[in-house]
Amino acid sequence: METQITELFQLQIYTDKGMFIGEVEDVVIDVDSKKIESLVVSKVNDQLFELKNFKGLKIPYRIISAIDDIVLIRHLPGAFAGGNGGEEE
């Protein structure tokens, strides 16, 4: 998966189950290993997260499945409070 970092900004982030998470605001880079560590999320879907005392959201790069017109991440059951993305529990 190779792309320019600047191309990531403002891409929408979805889980592989179609749940909207937010948009890429920034990229955290591990300078020593020269790799992306995580994506910082803005415009977070307020139906999925309790925003009281919200400090921000970072998506670890290791859970990213694909990047193209959107960022696709693995759906992690129980990771997103307040919504189930239309799934039956």
Walk me through this protein's architecture.
- With 89 residues, the protein is mainly β.
- It is built from no helices and 6 strands.
- It has strands spanning 12-15, 20-30, 35-42, 57-60, 64-67, 71-73.
- Strands 4-3-2-1-6-5 form a 6-stranded mixed beta sheet, with no helix packed on it.
- Strand 1 (12-15) and strand 2 (20-30) form a beta hairpin.
- It is globular.
- The model is unreliable at 85-89 (pLDDT under 50).
Beta-sheet strand percentage?
Answer: 35-45%
H/E series:
EEEEEE
Structural class call reads mainly beta
Ranges where pLDDT stays below 50 over 5 or more residues in a row are: 85-89
Write a concise keyword list for the protein shown above.
89 residues; mainly beta; six-stranded mixed beta sheet; 6 strands; globular; disordered C terminus
Mind sketching the topology for me?
Blueprint: E1 12-15, E2 20-30, E3 35-42, E4 57-60, E5 64-67, E6 71-73
Parallel strand pairs: 1-6
Antiparallel strand pairs: 1-2, 2-3, 3-4, 5-6
In short:
This protein is mainly β and 89 residues long. The protein is built from no helices and 6 strands.
